[in-house]
Write a structure and sequence with these properties.
Oligomer: single chain
CATH superfamily of the largest domain: Glycosidases
Number of domains: 2
Shape: globular
Largest sheet: 10 strands, mixed
CATH class of the largest domain: Alpha Beta
Distance between the termini: 26 Å
Helix content: 10-25%
Number of strands: 26
Radius of gyration: 22 Å
Strand content: 25-35%
CATH architecture of the largest domain: Alpha-Beta Barrel
CATH topology of the largest domain: TIM Barrel
Structural class: alpha/beta
Strand order of the largest sheet: 23-22-26-20-19-16-1-21-25-24
C-alpha cells in the first residue's frame, strides 16, 4: 500500500497565492471572443466581458493575471489601445495568425477585467520593439496619482484614480521572440529599463520581473542575476510540456498512446529539476535580497485541433492535462520558498486553457477543475509531504505512482492534494499525519480515462465527485482511482 507522509511540524513557508496565476495573451480567441465580446454583443456581458467566463474564473479565486503577452507584448504599443475605441488604430497580430485587431481591448479594458475578477494585474512591457520612454510612460499612466502628463491623459480617458498596477515584466522571452538577445545584452537593458520604472506612491511599490530563461538556460539566469539582480524583484522561467520535442509535430491533444501519456508526465516532472536549479542560482546571486522565481508561462503544448487556425494554438484538454496541472502545482507548492508566481498558459481557448468557448457556449476543462480543487492552497502554510510509492516504468521513462503536496490554512484545516499517475490501476493509499490527529476528512476526486474530456456536446463528462476516506489512528486511507487528482481536507482534533 502506498504511503503519504505529512509532517505538520515542518514548512518552507507560505504558498504565495500568485502561484495560481493565469495568463491571457492577444492570441487566437483568448481575449476576443473568449473573454471580451464588446458591450453590444448578444452574449451576456458586463462592460464587454463575458458574464459566463468571468463567473467561472471568479470561482477559482484567481490572484493575478498576466497580459498582453507573450510574444505579442513585444510588438504591443500601449497608446494604440487607449482613448475612444472608434479612434484606436487597427493593428496586425504578426506573431499569431496575422489577423487584424481593432485594439478595442486595451489598458482600461484589461483593468476592468481584473476588477471583475478581483485579481492583480501583471503587465508585460515592450522591450523588444519599444523604448524606455514608452514603458516608463505606461507605468506613469497607470500609477501616477498626482499631476503629470500621463496622469492627465488617463483622466482624459475617463479614469481619475490611478490603477496602481503592481507587477511589471521587463520584456518577454528576450532570448527569442522578445528580441533574440544575448543574456549580457538583455541584462544591461534590464538595468536601464528598471531605472525608469518608478513607484509613484510609497503605498504602491511596483514589483519588477526580469525576462528569464528558456527551460535549462542556466547561463541566462546567472548572467541576469549577476548583472541586474540588484534592480529586480523576480526573474521568470518558461517551460512547456511537449510529448515530442519536435515543435512541428508535438503530438495530438486527444489521440495519444499509453506511451505518449507517460512521456508527457515524465517530461512535466522535469519542472522540479528546473525550479531547483534556477532557484539555486538565484540564491547564489541574490546577495541577501529576496528575489523570486516567476514561472509565468507553463503548461502543455500540442498540435492544434484539426481544422483550426494554426496560429491560434487552440487545443483540447483531457485528464492527461489535469495530471500535468496537478504535478506542476504540487511542485510550485513544495518550492514556495522561491516560486513567487506562476501563470499557466493560457486562460481561455489557448493551449492548456481553463475554459473553452464556441460562440455563446462555454465548457470547463479538466484543468479548470484541478485549479478549483487546489484553490485552498493559496496563502496557506506549506507542509512537508512525501509519497512512498512505486515507480511506473514505460519504455525508458519512469514516473512515480503518486505525486503530492499539502498545506495548512489559517483555520487549521489541512489540504492534501494527490495525483495518481497510473493510467490503469487504482491505488489504495494510506495518509500518515505527523503532529496532528484527524477528527474528520472529506475527499473530492477528478478522474477518468487519460483521454477523457469535456466537449460542447458533453460538457460534464469530467466532473469532480465525492471520494470517501476512512479515518485511522495515524491519519486516513482512501482508494485513489486510476488517472485521478484528489483533494482531501482534514479537520484536526
Amino acid at each position: 500500500m502506498p504511503h503519504i507522509f505529512i509532517n505538520t511540524n515542518r514548512s518552507l513557508g507560505t504558498i504565495d497565492p500568485n502561484i495560481y496565476g493565469q495568463f491571457s495573451e492577444h492570441l487566437g480567441r483568448c481575449i476576443y471572443q473568449g473573454i471580451y465580446v464588446g458591450e453590444s454583443a448578444e452574449i451576456p456581458n458586463i462592460n464587454g466581458m463575458r458574464c459566463d467566463v468571468v463567473k467561472a474564473l471568479k470561482a477559482l479565486h484567481i490572484p493575478v493575471l498576466r497580459w498582453p503577452g507573450g510574444c505579442f507584448a513585444d510588438t504591443y504599443h500601449w497608446r494604440d489601445g487607449i482613448g475612444p475605441q472608434a479612434q484606436r488604430k487597427t493593428i496586425v497580430n504578426t506573431n499569431w495568425g496575422g489577423v487584424s485587431e481593432d485594439n478595442s481591448f486595451g489598458t482600461h479594458e484589461f483593468m476592468e477585467l481584473t476588477r471583475q475578477l478581483g485579481c492583480e494585474a501583471y503587465f508585460s512591457g515592450n522591450v523588444g520593439s519599444g523604448t524606455v520612454q514608452e514603458f516608463s510612460d505606461w507605468v506613469e499612466y497607470c500609477n501616477m496619482g498626482g499631476v503629470s502628463p500621463m496622469a492627465s491623459l488617463r483622466r482624459e480617458n475617463g479614469r481619475e484614480a490611478p490603477f496602481n498596477v503592481k507587477y511589471w515584466g521587463i520584456g518577454n522571452e528576450a532570448w527569442g521572440c522578445g528580441g533574440n538577445m544575448r543574456a549580457e545584452y538583455y541584462a544591461d537593458l534590464c538595468r536601464q529599463y528598471s531605472t525608469y520604472l518608478r513607484s509613484y506612491s510609497p503605498d504602491h511599490k511596483i514589483y519588477k520581473i526580469a525576462s528569464g530563461a528558456n527551460v535549462d538556460d542556466y547561463h541566462w539566469t546567472r548572467t541576469v542575476l549577476e548583472r541586474a539582480g540588484h534592480v529586480i524583484d523576480a526573474v521568470s522561467l518558461h517551460y512547456y510540456t511537449l510529448p515530442h520535442q519536435d515543435w512541428q509535430h508535438k503530438g495530438s491533444a486527444t489521440e495519444f498512446t499509453e506511451s505518449e501519456y507517460y512521456t508527457t508526465l515524465h517530461k512535466t516532472l522535469r519542472m522540479e529539476e528546473l525550479v531547483e536549479n534556477h532557484s539555486r542560482i538565484i540564491r547564489q546571486f541574490a546577495g541577501g535580497r529576496k528575489i523570486g522565481l516567476a514561472v509565468d508561462e507553463w503548461g502543455t503544448w500540442y498540435d492544434v485541433e484539426p481544422g483550426t487556425n494554426p496560429g491560434f494554438l487552440y487545443q483540447q484538454n483531457t485528464m492527461r492535462d489535469a495530471l500535468v496541472a496537478a504535478i506542476n502545482l504540487n511542485i510550485f507548492n513544495n518550492h514556495c520558498d522561491t516560486v513567487c508566481m506562476a501563470n499557466i498558459a493560457q486562460m481561455v481557448n489557448v493551449l492548456q486553457a481553463m475554459i473553452l468557448t464556441e460562440g455563446s457556449k462555454m465548457v470547463l476543462t479538466p484543468t479548470y477543475h484541478v485549479f478549483a480543487l487546489y484553490a485552498a492552497h493559496q496563502g496557506a502554510q506549506q507542509l512537508e509531504s512525501y509519497a512512498e510509492t512505486s515507480i511506473l516504468r514505460h519504455d525508458e521513462e519512469a514516473v512515480p505512482t503518486l505525486h503530492v503536496s499539502a498545506s495548512r490554512a489559517a483555520d487549521g484545516k489541512i489540504l492534501i492534494t494527490v495525483a495518481n499517475l497510473d493510467a490503469a490501476h487504482p491505488a489504495q493509499a494510506q495518509a500518515l499525519l505527523g503532529g496532528v490527529k484527524a477528527a474528520a476528512v472529506n475527499g473530492t476526486v477528478l478522474c477518468g480515462t487519460a483521454d477523457a474530456r469535456n466537449t460542447f456536446t458533453a460538457p460534464n463528462a469530467v466532473q469532480p465527485k465525492a471520494l470517501s476516506a476512512v479515518l485511522t489512528a495515524d491519519g486516513f486511507t482512501a482508494a485513489l482511482p486510476a488517472c485521478s487528482v484528489a483533494a482531501f481536507t482534514v479537520t484536526p482534533q
